[in-house]
């Protein structure tokens, strides 16, 4: 399979996330453009509503002025009477009427209809002119600000326009108010008020650049339209225009908004949105690049660690951060896997070395045991012939022990194990005559229980090396068997030196964890295994180191036994400990034999079995051995060992 380049993950993540960022930025740009267009359109509609409202207010305002002037005329009796006379009389007759009335009045100012109109022009600047039309004389008088009056005009045409509702003028707002007799309510004439509209409406419309306005009198008389030349009628039905129509008396005010123009984005706004989108895209790509590089770096670290594992380096470890994400979980599980693999390989390597050592020991033990038996028997007979029966008995016990170690199966009965223990104790009773004795007790129903052989002999040897006090005459070792439930208990109790509480606790902890033997015998083997995996050491050199590691414990044990047997090391009466005993005291907690027995018991019967130690008061130590109390206990685990022993005896193992 083609090996992936480390940058492929980064490039794939960078391209994918960059595309996502660009899509998101593009969507945001489109959204903001659409939102801005909608906001502009909404603002345009609000402005159109305001424009329409102001135009309506202006039209209603001038209409209210016309109504007010008309009502105010009726409130002044002098001015109303003057206007009625003006409608009835000819111009010369009206002049004479006015003169007589002024002479007869006591006021300095004659309040005629013209006085009334001058005050109206002064009060309302948007009032351009007032027309007086007489129904009786058919005359028209036009009045303008600053006392400008045009009397005596023919009013026939104007009356016709008023009757036909065609009196409006483009750009002006015109209102007709009829004047009646106060007594008979007969119409005498009318007043036509003309207000300026074009400039005011154009000013209102200019508040919005996209707004259009049309003011129509009646049905089709257009008095104002902006922009000029545009036809307002089609816009009323055009769906692209927003229309606001309102009525002010006889006038219709139409306001139009071209939504396409109103929603069009200005170039400045369009460029600002694009610039913001581009900036967001650049920032997003920068963060994508940073995240992709960081993520790819973490993945590459995992891949590098895996590559190192493939080369045999199981000490590589990955850093686990505080993110607690999936990669941290992978790194944590990878570290755990490497630790377990390292332990498994070391364990397998050590087991393979132990298996090779066992094969070597099996090969070395193929020497025909009959030669040793015959030699020891000849020595024993020679000692008896010389009258040294004590030496003969010692040689006999040794021959029995030697024969049981080589010929018996690995699983024997408890009775046989106790017999071998008695033979071993007899040897030391000959050695320590008068200062040592032993007791062995066991119920008869327990003697047939199976147990692996030589579990008591190393405990006894440990006592004679480390526990016995040779200057005393009452040294005692008691061996007792007991069954509790499905567990067989063997108690080995002495009254020797004992053990300090701290060392006793440490010894029990090591026995419980079953680590002492491996640490003592396998430390150098693990170092060799690690060196071989890392540096590719020569297998021949490893084998040599293994043999040296295995020979060291045997040499130490041999030296200890030689020191224990050497007569020169025995203390004189009343003197302190011999050097061997002092060395043994220093190594009290390093009892290799007890650890080996504990390891064998746990390996055969299970982890809950083995050995633990108890202090004896006032002085001494009790070793408790636990094994499974069943008829077939241990046979399936060590059955092959018995067959191998028989083959050795027959000489069939090469």
Structure at a glance:
Helix 9 (267-310) runs parallel beside helix 10, helix 11 (369-385) packs antiparallel against helix 12 and helix 16 (516-535) packs antiparallel against helix 17 (539-565).
SS-derived structural category: alpha+beta
Provide a count of the helices: 20
Trace the largest sheet across and list its strands. 3-2-1-5-4
The N- and C-terminal alpha carbons lie at a distance of 48 Å
Q: What quaternary form is this?
A: single chain
Strand proportion, as a percent range, falls in 15-25%
Radius of gyration: 64 Å
3D shape = rod-shaped
Largest sheet data: 5 strands, antiparallel
- Mean pLDDT metric: 79
Number of strands: 16
Low-confidence stretches: 516-522, 536-547, 549-590, 639-654
Helix content: 55-70%
Explain what you see:
By secondary structure, the chain is of the alpha+beta class. Helix content is 58%, strand content 17%. Helix 1 runs antiparallel to helix 6 and helix 10 packs across helix 16. The chain is rod-shaped, with a radius of gyration of 64 Å. The C terminus is likely disordered.
């Amino acid at each position: 399979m083609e090996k992936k380049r480390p940058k492929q993950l980064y490039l794939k993540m960078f391209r994918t996330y960059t595309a996502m960022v660009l899509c998101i930025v593009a969507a945001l740009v489109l959204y903001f453009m659409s939102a801005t267009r909608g906001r502009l359109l909404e603002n345009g509609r609000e402005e159109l509503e305001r424009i329409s409202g102001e135009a309506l207010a202006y039209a209603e305002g001038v209409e209210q002025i016309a109504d007010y002037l008309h009502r105010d005329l009726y409130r002044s009796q002098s001015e109303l009477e003057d206007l009625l006379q003006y409608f009835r009389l000819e111009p010369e007759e009206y002049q004479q009427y006015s003169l007589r009335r002024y002479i007869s009045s006591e006021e300095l100012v004659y309040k005629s209809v013209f006085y009334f109109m001058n005050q109206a022009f002064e009060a309302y600047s948007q009032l351009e002119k007032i027309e007086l039309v007489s129904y009786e004389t058919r005359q028209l008088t036009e009045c303008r600000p600053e006392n400008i009056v045009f009397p005596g005009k023919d009013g026939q045409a104007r009356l016709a326009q008023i009757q036909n509702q065609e009196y409006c003028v483009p750009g002006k707002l015109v209102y007709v108010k009829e004047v009646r007799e106060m007594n008979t309510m007969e119409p005498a004439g009318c007043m036509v008020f003309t207000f300026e509209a074009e400039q005011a409406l154009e000013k209102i419309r200019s508040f919005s650049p996209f707004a259009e306005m049309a003011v129509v009198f009646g049905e089709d008389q257009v008095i104002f339209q902006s922009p000029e030349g545009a036809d307002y009628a089609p816009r009323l039905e055009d769906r692209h225009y927003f229309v606001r129509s309102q009525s002010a008396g006889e006038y219709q005010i139409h306001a139009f908004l071209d939504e396409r123009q109103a929603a069009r984005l200005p170039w400045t706004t369009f460029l600002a949105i694009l610039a913001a989108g581009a900036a967001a895209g650049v920032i997003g790509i920068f963060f994508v690049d940073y995240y992709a590089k960081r993520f790819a770096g973490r993945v590459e670290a995992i891949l590098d660690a895996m590559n190192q594992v493939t080369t045999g380096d199981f000490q590589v470890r990955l850093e686990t951060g505080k993110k607690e994400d999936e990669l941290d979980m992978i790194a944590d599980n990878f570290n755990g896997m490497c630790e377990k693999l390292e332990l498994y390989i070391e364990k397998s390597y050590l087991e393979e070395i132990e298996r090779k050592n066992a094969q070597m020991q099996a090969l070395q033990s193929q020497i025909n045991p009959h030669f040793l038996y015959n030699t020891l028997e000849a020595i024993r007979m020679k000692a008896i012939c010389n009258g040294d029966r004590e030496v003969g008995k010692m040689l006999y016990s040794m021959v029995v022990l030697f024969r049981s170690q080589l010929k018996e199966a690995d699983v024997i009965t408890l009775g046989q194990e106790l017999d071998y223990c008695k033979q071993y104790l007899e040897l030391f009773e000959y050695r320590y005559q008068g200062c040592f004795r032993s007791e062995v007790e066991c119920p008869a129903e327990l003697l047939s229980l199976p147990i692996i052989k030589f579990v008591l002999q190393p405990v006894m040897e440990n006592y004679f090396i480390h526990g016995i006090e040779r200057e005393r005459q009452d040294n005692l070792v008691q061996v007792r068997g007991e069954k509790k439930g499905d567990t067989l208990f063997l108690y080995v109790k002495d009254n020797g030196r004992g053990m300090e509480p701290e060392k006793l606790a440490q010894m029990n902890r090591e026995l419980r964890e079953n680590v002492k033997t491996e640490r003592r015998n396998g430390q150098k083997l693990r170092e060799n295994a690690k060196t071989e995996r890392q540096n590719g050491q020569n297998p021949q050199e490893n084998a040599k180191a293994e043999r040296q590691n295995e020979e060291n414990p045997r040499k130490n044990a041999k030296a200890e036994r030689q020191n224990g047997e050497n007569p020169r090391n025995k203390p004189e009466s009343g003197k302190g400990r011999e050097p061997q005993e002092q060395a043994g005291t220093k190594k009290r907690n390093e009892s290799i034999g007890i650890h080996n027995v504990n390891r064998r018991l746990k390996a055969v019967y299970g982890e809950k079995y083995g050995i633990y130690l108890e202090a004896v008061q006032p002085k001494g130590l009790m070793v408790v051995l636990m094994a499974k109390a069943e008829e077939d206990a241990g046979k399936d685990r060590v059955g092959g060992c018995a067959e191998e022993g028989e083959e050795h005896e027959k000489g069939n193992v090469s």
